[in-house]
Specification:
Layout: H1 18-40, H2 53-58, E1 63-67, E2 71-75, E3 82-93, H3 97-102, H4 104-117, H5 128-144, E4 149-159
Antiparallel strand pairs: 1-3, 2-3, 3-4
Helix pairs in contact: 4-5
């Protein structure tokens, strides 16, 4: 039997790295071009995406802050008696500032009632302030009427 044997002393041909290099260069160029087109606003938006100082100043709505009287609330009973010093402000539309200020006694009553009802051990949770703030904002919005209070800002929260 005669077999055709491939010559073994011929080395296999090496593949060229030229297509890989061309693909890499094209990917870098196209990626950079896509980034620049998006960043400059030619794609998916207008402008450079940066807010100018003039636009930032004129974009603020007419708001006012109504400071509420600071509260000192006793929490717990017996040997676990702790005190909470709580100060806050209400962010309102400028047109509603006087109306909300007139309702301050009702708002303070809501704050006192809710903060006294909270279990002392809830204050140990790091996310407690976020939950308390959301609950108080909702209750204040009910007292003052829908749309008068924009936000509730806690300016002092000291527990001892």
């Amino acid at each position: 039997m005669a077999e055709d044997e491939a010559p073994q002393d011929v080395a296999p041909k090496k593949k060229s790295k030229k297509p890989l290099l061309i693909g890499l260069v094209l990917a870098l160029i196209l990626g950079g071009g896509g980034f620049y087109a998006t960043w400059s606003g030619m794609i998916l938006g207008e402008g450079s995406g940066h807010v100018t100082q003039e636009a930032a100043v004129t974009a603020l709505p007419a708001i006012a802050f109504v400071p509420l009287d600071p509260l000192v609330i006793s929490l717990g009973s017996g040997s676990e008696n702790r005190h909470l010093r709580f100060a806050s402000q209400l962010e309102v539309n400028e047109a509603n500032a006087e109306e909300v200020a007139k309702l301050q006694p009702r708002i303070i009553d809501v704050l006192n009632g809710y903060l006294r009802a909270i279990d002392v051990h809830e204050f140990d949770d790091p996310a407690a302030l976020v939950r308390i703030r959301a609950q108080l904002l909702r209750r204040i919005q009910i007292v003052t009427g829908n749309g008068r209070v924009r936000d509730f800002l806690v300016t002092e929260f000291v527990l001892n």
